[in-house]
Amino acid sequence: MTYALNGNIQASDYNTLVGGNPTTTINTLNATWGTGGATAGYGQTAEANVATGDLVAATKWANLVNKTASAASHQGTTITSVSAPVTGGNVTYLSAIPTNLTTIYSSRTNAATQGATSANTATYASTWSSALTFTHTVTFANGDAARYFFNSGGQLKLTCTHANSSAGINLLFNGLASNVGTVVMSSPTSGAVTISGTSFNGITKVAGGGSTPTISTNSGYYAMTISNANVFTQTASTGPLGYLSTFIRVIAKSNGSQGSNGDAGSVVTLYTVWDEVPDGLVVGTGSTVTVTAQAPETTYLANSWGTISVAGSVTGS
Predict the structure, then answer these.
(1) Exposed, middle or buried by CB within 10 Å (0-12, 13-18, 19+), for 302?
(2) Does residue 253 have a pLDDT over 50?
(3) Is 219:229 a contact under the CB 8 Å cutoff?
(4) How far is Cα 164 from Cα 107, in angstroms, rounded to an integer?
(5) Residue 93 has pLDDT above 90, yes or no
(6) pTM of the model
(7) What's the sign of the alpha-carbon dihedral 94, 99, 105, 107?
(8) H-type alpha helices, the chain
(9) Mean per-residue pLDDT for 19-34?
């Protein structure tokens, strides 16, 4: 790359900054903005390369500058302000351009805000005395759509409620469901992302209370496989003596990689198990689990993740 102070700007300079599409080359615009691969890529319209020997128009440089700024605004990332060149004007060397590309790539899975929601609530309408299994499926159009959803700050959120708060086992499940809080699945398999000003691991408990749950923090979307994984377990903290081993557990899996760009599946399945330990006491009606798909924002990004379908059912006795 010859993009440097006092150097001639060549097509290869521009193409190196932009990158191909799809590309997994770090610190290029299209790795973050376009198709990318695995944890990189918002699925936005990629910036096309310039043919060798052609002039690099001011509009092309403006696209590079403006799309970098949009990615930073989406992330809530601070970059150095760069004025986009205009037609007829000079394109000058700016060291901030490659630096800004590095910054937005490093912060690519953060999001300053989020967008619309799709949700499903499954309710068990009968009494029960053993266990319930709630099954929720979150379906995307394809593996890349799922990648764009999670890469752009989308999350899956699970909550539980048990309306009956009468004494005994009902009071136990009422408190236990409340103590679960909100179980949130984000993208990471390690570390954390910052979304709407809050730090999230792959699996994060928000609010709630009770005893300390068992959380598989590194079991975000990109950790999903076709095998079931226990990602969250909350046990009862108050209730009838002998029943404090009762728990609510979340189990997650996907349908496996569907494409060639590093997705972890186009369907995420969440099983929420309510288990009375030991069996026997009659639990009242109205046990519910809600799963919500919280989509990324669409102020700085176009919707590349498409329509998200959330379906739920429950079985038990």
Answers:
(1) exposed
(2) yes
(3) yes
(4) 44
(5) no
(6) 0.95
(7) negative
(8) 11-18, 29-33, 58-75, 96-106, 143-151, 169-180
(9) 97
